[in-house]
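Cross-check.
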Amino acid sequence: MEKLALFGGTPVRATRLPYARQTIEADDAAAVQAALGGDWITQGPLVARFEQVLAARAGVAHAVAFSSGTAALHAACWAAGLGPGDEAITTPLTFAATASAVVYQGARPVFADIDTGTLNVAPDAVKRVATARTRALLPVDFAGLPCDYARLVALAREHGWVVIADAAHSFGGAAGARPVGALADMTTLSFHPAKLITTGEGGAVLTDRADFADRLRTMRHHGIRYADPARPWRHDIPEIGQNYRLTDFQSALGLSQLAKLDRFWERRDRLARRYRDRLSGSNFVELPTLPADRRHGWHLFVVLLRLDRLGADRDTIVEALRAENIGATVHYPLVYRHTAYRERFGYSAGLCPAAETVEARLVTLPLFPAMTEDDQDDVLRALDKVFAHYAR
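Predicted model, tokenized:
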């Protein structure tokens, strides 16, 4: 048996393959350089153009750009009117920013358990945790798979909740014929370098509702409202907002990247399906469900370890893969297990049993457009090597 690099053996790769990496090409750099030579450095006409193209891509009336995906989430919760005494339901299997945006508004995040097939929030679990204080629902398209919005939106309409879709992972995906961005009252995006397209840091909220769009634009600019645009020094702040503006040069990068979204998605899709073909018969991993009516965004490629067939826990497997220079990682520690959430809200173990079982088995494998099939073969060889060592 080949000796693991973790114990002094030769790694599968000589250099680290990251789990994600941005793709910046010469025309992207040229677009940013041109913007830097223009009249606007901060928010200017390229932001408006980026928003226009984003909205058209998603088939919605409005896109409002923000300085980060977290800022977009916060602004959406602000625009929805969340405040002290309110509750918003979300999934525990997400980056903490989803729930933190609720907390920023003084509201309480309530966690609904996940579907163990899709790894997205389960509509029936949402019903179980809803209360008279529930005001919003924040589904998360985990790894890039759009949630079951048909059921979730119908449930929200019954109760008068606002649906804020956290689509940081799924831009470029779709549910049936409807693209991500047009599936909820508001949809938040992230343009972090690990995502399908990047502006460095950046985000956006997509919506068909003019009232939400108006509030979002106000919130990102300190809450300022102008009675007379011709006299901008005469303004009022009826509600305190934030400085969450995206810059023109970031928008120049976003416009250039947006033109490549389909190419980047197609490459991710090809690699993801190759992973699924190679791993579908594995004795040591299970693959999440891929519903036929949904187009996956493929931000992440995750597998579920069959720990009953391995003499090691998830963290040991990840450490062994990383020693082989495969940048495996974990998305995500469950939000309610973080110290700040436990201490502030009193969450405890057992809150979402399905999510807890899944999180203990989750591993994220490298996936990004510039990956080659040789890179992917290195990942698969490392998996075989590690599994052979720890097989029961």
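The CA atoms of residues 82 and 105 lie 6 Å apart. The longest strand covers residues 62-66. Passed to J.P. for a second look.
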